[in-house]
Design a protein that fits this description.
Strand content: over 45%
Shape: elongated
Distance between the termini: 10 Å
Strand order of the largest sheet: 2-1-5-6
Number of domains: 1
Order of helices and strands: EEEEEEEEEE
Number of strands: 10
Length: 103
């Protein structure tokens, strides 16, 4: 059984027991999060596709850790002018373990 959920402006295909990194959600380690924006749910027999969301479908996840992504380097320069600027960015992430998918 799997589902497609929408969180942080992105869509993720999730299955029960899977651990995935998504954009930061508020909550402590061990807190339970319920995703109500479910776009599609599939089990062995049928596939339910929402218009745009599947009615009554929820995905329950548990926060495993609050982490940061890899450092991204942003380098800008203007040729022949001597201007250059180097900055970096690390995205705040939440590791989630999917506990239950319900139709």
């Amino acid at each position: 059984m799997y589902a497609v959920i929408k969180t942080g402006g992105k869509q993720h295909k999730v299955t029960e027991g899977e651990v995935l990194s998504i954009e930061k959600l508020e909550g402590e380690k061990g807190a339970e999060v319920i995703f109500k924006e479910v776009l599609m749910v599939s089990d062995d027999k049928e596939v339910k596709i929402g218009k745009p969301l599947v009615e009554g479908a929820t995905v329950v996840g548990e926060i495993v850790a609050q982490t940061q992504g890899p450092k991204l380097i942003v380098f800008r320069m203007k040729r022949r002018k001597g201007f250059h600027k180097k900055t970096g960015h690390r995205q705040q992430l939440t590791s989630m373990k999917i506990k239950k998918i319900s139709m």
